[in-house]
Amino acid sequence: MPDKPFPVLVTGGAGYIGSHAVLALLDAGWPVVVLDDLSTGFRWAVPDAVTFVEGNVADMDLVGRTLADHGIGAILHFAGSIVVPESVVDPLKYYRNNTAASRALIEAAVTAGVPHFIFSSTAATYGIPDEVPIREDMPNRPINPYGTSKLMTEHMLRDVAAAHPLNFCALRYFNVAGADPEGRSGQSTAGATHLIKIAVEAVTGKRAHVGVFGTDYDTPDGTGVRDYIHVSDLADAHVAALEWLIENPAESRIMNCGYGRGYSVMEVLDTVDRVTNTPIVRKLEARRAGDPDLLTADNSLILETLPWRPKRDDLSLIVQHALQWEHKLAERRGES
Ligand code: UFG
């Protein structure tokens, strides 16, 4: 889209995936406004070229003013809470930060007449699938409040799009990993739980070992299999979805975002060892509660709908970029 018709609002633009979406939007020439309360994101993750508004998406006065002041024409909504085990012990936090906050944001969008909305959804909306790869029309049976809180937002968007002049895409992410190839952003949150982040922390010495959670899954090598997608490919999918929404104002879509193939925990750790040429210490541990054996995306819908094509479907590259960013973080902490 050569002439950008309006600026876009990115909520959670100081966070991991949101900051990569901001980079992809800027690279494509979109004017961007970021709204983030910095509860888990970082001010430094927002480039200078972007207007930054500090605040919460549930603050309808602030959001309403921001939409009007900047003439926002689309919202990319990343802000939210994302830690699955935390959602089990503190479900109301998830229904507040994800479901209720999204409801407020969507109402502000409808009130201001914002016509396009992109929502950061998750494979956790499926729960434990009957078969893989998972298609979007398979049942949604989330097994934790995190997945339910996101599914409820999808339902709100579906109903709102039927009642108001707003169309939306909900992108159901599989396992997002890696970092900006140019080193401009990456996964920076402390207390990470994601496998590739944990593995690269072990490489830089931040951790002594990586626990392998379960070796008796119904998978070829007994460890859990996931569909790892490079965060920059995912970010590009949002830009393509934005342009599709503008070109197809009467349509909305819920689409999986994955590569359609899986790697086991052992395969991921083997890849990390190959990239660094040094074995990290693996500790075989018990299964983590609620982990499915195998999750891979059927990505045919997104490939049919958008001109988006993965450019970084390469586990070694994902690991290299995650590692490059981890070294940068370690330098920032003064460790190397
Ligand atoms: N794993 C380990 N050791 C670790 C961390 C993870 O063996 O230290 C294993 C897990 O058991 C799983 C795989 O590595 O088999 C991937 O685990 P992650 O924690 O990296 O990711 P999940 O698949 O659990 O979670 C992802 C997203 C969630 C989303 C979920 C959907 O990060 O946001 O998929 O099912 F909810």
Detail the topology: elements first, then pairings.
Elements: E1 8-11, H1 16-27, E2 32-36, E3 51-54, H2 60-70, E4 74-77, H3 84-89, H4 91-112, E5 116-122, H5 145-163, E6 167-173, E7 175-177, H6 195-203, E8 210-213, E9 225-226, E10 228-230, H7 231-247, E11 253-257, E12 263-264, H8 265-276, E13 282-285, E14 294-295, H9 300-305, H10 315-332
Parallel strand pairs: 1-2, 1-4, 2-3, 4-5, 5-6, 6-11, 7-10, 8-13, 9-14
Antiparallel strand pairs: 9-12
The chain binds uridine-5'-diphosphate-4-deoxy-4-fluoro-alpha-D-galactose.
The site of uridine-5'-diphosphate-4-deoxy-4-fluoro-alpha-D-galactose has 21 residues, from helix 6 and strand 8.
Q: Terminal Cα separation, in Å?
A: 43 Å
Biggest β-sheet description:
7 strands, parallel
Given this structure, which CATH class of the domain at 8-177 and 229-257 is correct?
Alpha Beta
Shape: globular
Regions with pLDDT < 50 over 5+ consecutive residues?
none
Briefly characterize the structure:
The chain has 336 residues and is of the alpha/beta class. The chain is built from ten helices and 14 strands. The protein has a domain at 8-177 and 229-257: Rossmann fold.
Spell out the key features of this protein.
336 residues, globular, alpha/beta, binds uridine-5'-diphosphate-4-deoxy-4-fluoro-alpha-D-galactose, 3-stranded mixed beta sheet, 39% helix, Rossmann fold, 10 helices, 7-stranded parallel beta sheet
Description of the structure:
- The protein is of the alpha/beta class and 336 residues long.
- It has a domain at 8-177 and 229-257: 3-Layer(aba) Sandwich (Rossmann fold), CATH 3.40.50.720.
- Helix content is 39%, strand content 17%.
- The chain contains 10 helices and 14 strands.
- It has helices at residues 16-27, 60-70, 84-89, 91-112, 145-163, 195-203, 231-247, 265-276, 300-305, 315-332; strands at residues 8-11, 32-36, 51-54, 74-77, 116-122, 167-173, 175-177, 210-213, 225-226, 228-230, 253-257, 263-264, 282-285, 294-295.
- The strands form 4 sheets. Strands 3-2-1-4-5-6-11 form a 7-stranded parallel beta sheet, sandwiched between helices. The chain has a 3-stranded mixed beta sheet with strand order 12-9-14. The chain has a two-stranded parallel sheet with strand order 7-10.
- Strand 1 (8-11), helix 1 (16-27) and strand 2 form a beta-alpha-beta unit.
- The protein is globular, with a radius of gyration of 19 Å.
- The mean pLDDT is 97.
- The structure holds uridine-5'-diphosphate-4-deoxy-4-fluoro-alpha-D-galactose.
- Uridine-5'-diphosphate-4-deoxy-4-fluoro-alpha-D-galactose binds next to helix 6 and strand 8.
